[in-house]
Amino acid sequence: MKSLGVIVEYNPFHNGHLFHLTESKRKTGADVVIAVMSGQFLQRGEPALVSKWTRTKMALSNGIDIVVELPYAFATQKAEVFASGSISILSGLKCDSVCFGSEQGNIEDFEQTIRLMDDQKEKHDLLVQEFIGQGYSFPRASSLAFLKLTENSDQVLDLTKPNNILGYHYVKAIHEQKSSLQPSTIERTGAGYHDPEFNDTPIASATSIRKHLFDHSGNIEKVQRFVPEKTFDLLGHYLHHVGSFHQWEDYFSLLKYRILCSTPSELAEIYEVEEGLENRLIHTMKESLTFHEFMTKLKTKRYTWTRLQRMCTHLLTNTKKDVMLNVSSSKRSEYIRLLGMSRRGQHYLKLIKKEVELPILSKVSGVKSHMLDMDIRATNTYALKFPEPTRSEWMLQEFSKPPIRYDEADGRFL
Amino acid sequence: MKSLGVIVEYNPFHNGHLFHLTESKRKTGADVVIAVMSGQFLQRGEPALVSKWTRTKMALSNGIDIVVELPYAFATQKAEVFASGSISILSGLKCDSVCFGSEQGNIEDFEQTIRLMDDQKEKHDLLVQEFIGQGYSFPRASSLAFLKLTENSDQVLDLTKPNNILGYHYVKAIHEQKSSLQPSTIERTGAGYHDPEFNDTPIASATSIRKHLFDHSGNIEKVQRFVPEKTFDLLGHYLHHVGSFHQWEDYFSLLKYRILCSTPSELAEIYEVEEGLENRLIHTMKESLTFHEFMTKLKTKRYTWTRLQRMCTHLLTNTKKDVMLNVSSSKRSEYIRLLGMSRRGQHYLKLIKKEVELPILSKVSGVKSHMLDMDIRATNTYALKFPEPTRSEWMLQEFSKPPIRYDEADGRFL
């Protein structure tokens, strides 16, 4: 069986994702598709719109055969770490290829850029430090350094584009991990990654879909034409049973509690709280009535919004520097946590089982792992927005819930 | 001016308190009365029914001249530490006497017991350890040791009674601090300390009054005959403006967050989390939907309910062992924080000001003190039950609010 890996958040699964999935299958001729998907908190440092279980259902009912959770230790990190963890899981599951969306759309440009950066690493790093010294954020400094390095070459990869950056790190991780994964890419079409407005195509960015859902809570009809039918049904079902979608404002009380009931030195132990930010956090929180107000006041040229949101996520989940650095330093996942599978996916797992070196977890009860503790804590935090008994049920099901099973012939969950 | 000190919680100020106050004034012939009062969290390890500011108003309008906050570092502790902090403040304010309520009602019995315990300290401590070894809680073991020591003497002080225990520690603290405070006591009449039922006298326990207020939220009429008119008005005002009284269930979400988003070793750093309780906390919290359910499941013969509630308060306020032990080891307050005063109280403060060695704080903005940080954090936590903007206003006013001033001639707040 020819296997393809994709790296996703599906927040929520929309027509653009379906297009990418269909094209990736066509391009690679894959028989089975594995998605490594972020859990309850995402790379931009925010809670997912709906839980990982509902997003797993969206994935399975739209053509994914196996959904595996990207551990929190990678999912809520900058592109380089996010990519390393993702690639380690797809390699671990013996995928033949990985296909990612990019603004560039041509894999050779990525390979060429990796070679160029390998050759000029020292010069690049010096330039990055120089731009940081000028007050730029790390991602911006990296982009500027890269532009400077390549200003006189025929280099065409635009590393200011978010999906090109991710793609670059996927290919780099494949090299570093000496993985046999074959990378390929598909050009992203339609709406830009962060485009907040709808247009007249059936493709809208996840950002615009989420924005719409929050602006018109309770009325999901307007996003219907941008998502597959199954996604629409699952969104409606979530709203009906859970009551609302998840957003940062739901967790603002807990963040306020965390920040105002910690000493500056306790805050400084949290991952990503760097360079005196601890005092700024306390000072800013005292004057902020909403998460948005807090973030707006916290923002400086020095840090991107995303970087600060990730820091807030780590504050919320009480993720400390020492633990995070210890856990993510290997750049590889310690386990493969199954969230769901189709019949085809299940068959594939049987075939490769003996070759897989990482433990495949169907349930997490009884497993000892600092990396896994973070995922459990992320779910505990994510569930706290609900009243009892829902939140306790969610916390307990994190341990007991088996992977979701899907019969793709019937189109039904088992 | 002859000055009298009382040590109070006024949760809320009721007819029994008024009786004690009137009798104490009569007995000591005092011109001015100073109350050292617990802040937002109380000795039984629970949030006060209404804020310290409203309780200050209750005190002033019922005959107290100066209200000073007992710092969190003493207010949420066992009798011995609670008493030390309280006595240090009354001594610091040059009080001539202190008068406390007790089941015993005769100060000579307290003095005699102190002498007996001084003589037999070693034997007593051995007996305590013996009873703890048999699985008794510390307070129960102390009572039993004391009973055993005195079984053949004519000792009459019953140290199983809560107010006798407190009184014993007040007198002991006066001795230890070589204070010139003259102790006296008045026999408590009417309802017992913990009596949850009303009877036909105008005196009901604070416990029964609180229970009634929570059982019939929004209907405070039934407690009217047990509290002075000003208390009744202030309770009504609080309910109207703040929306509800404070109870542990209001903070259960935050406690759940604290416990389920901490590692066992982080929990073990919290004051009063002893002897493997950290794992029991996590395990029990996972299965509990309310604070009451949590406490009931947590309770063992080894610990009293109060001891466990105090531990929960320290978890809630993130009070760590090292800080608490460091701050409370001196057994004396570092400052005198004024919450309110009458004209007479203000006059008294002017008279004694030059003799007072501790700093008298009218506002806390800009003051550096670990002990004071705990009080501020207690208010931050206490305020979190409200939605914005109320909670932020409360947090900010902790820094900016001057002491409440009361004109006793007019019966009006200034």
Write up what this structure looks like:
The structure is a homodimer of 414-residue chains. Helices cover 49% and strands 11% of the residues of chain A. The first copy, chain A, is an alpha/beta fold and 414 residues long. The first copy, chain A, has a domain at 248-318. In chain A, strands 1, 2, 3, 4, 5, 6, 7, 8 and 9 form a nine-stranded mixed sheet that branches. In chain A, strand 6, helix 17 and strand 7 form a beta-alpha-beta unit. In chain A, helix 6 (121-133) crosses helix 7 and helix 18 (370-383) packs antiparallel against helix 19. Chain A is globular. Chain A starts with a strand and ends with a strand. The relative contact order of chain A is 0.16. Chain A binds chain B through residues 253-254, 256-257, 260-263, 266, 286-290, 317-318, 373, 377, 380-381, 384, 388-389, 391-392, 395-396, and chain B through 253-254, 256-257, 260-263, 266, 286-290, 317-318, 373, 377, 380-381, 384, 388-389, 391-392, 395-396.
